[in-house]
Amino acid sequence: MIDIGLTKIALIGVVALVVIGPEKLPRVARMAGTLFGRAQRYINQVKAEVGREMEMEELRKMQQEMRETASELQQDLEEAGRTIHAAVSERDDAASDYASLNPPTPARLAEKAKNFRKKKLLRTSAIPSWYKRQNGHKTRVLSASARVSKYRPASAARKSSPFFH
């Protein structure tokens, strides 16, 4: 704000001592300090208010830009939806013409379902079934308990465990 050095403050103090006098000088200095503090607080409040107004104006501009962008995006999406709807309706018209010329038979539907199951199995398994059959790999995995019951000798299955007497 005001550039006041130490020499200027000393000069002001000497002039004030001569003009006001030593009795009233502390009271005048205190009053000047409070007035200076009030002025400083008032200036800071005005600066803060101006800053808030500028931020609000920037936010309003940003809000307006976002609204414009949103409306443009909405228009683009509606236009894309209309073109897709038109393309789908044209395709449906062509598909209905084709379906009326060549209706599916039950045998053709059964063959299609069978092929679908085969294709799905091939997609979901890591190793193709023809490769497993050719190389002797297991096609099904047995749990540990299933292996024990399958491969346990018949004589061991009849004996009772000595642990449970």
Summarize this structure briefly:
It is built from 6 helices and no strands. It has 165 residues and is mostly helical.
Low-confidence stretches: none
The geometry reads as elongated
Number of helices: 6
Report the β-strand fraction as a percent range.
under 5%
Mean pLDDT score: 81
Give the beta-strand count.
0
Order of helices and strands: HHHHHH
Biggest sheet overview:
none
Can you describe this structure?
This protein is mostly helical and 165 residues long. It has a domain at 105-137. The chain is built from 6 helices and no strands. The protein has helices at residues 6-20, 25-101, 106-124, 129-135, 144-151, 154-158. The model has no long low-confidence stretch (mean pLDDT 81).
Set down the secondary structure blueprint:
Blueprint (H helix, E strand, L loop, with lengths): L5 H15 L4 H77 L4 H19 L4 H7 L8 H8 L2 H5 L7
Give me some keywords for this one.
165 residues; single chain; mainly alpha; elongated; 6 helices
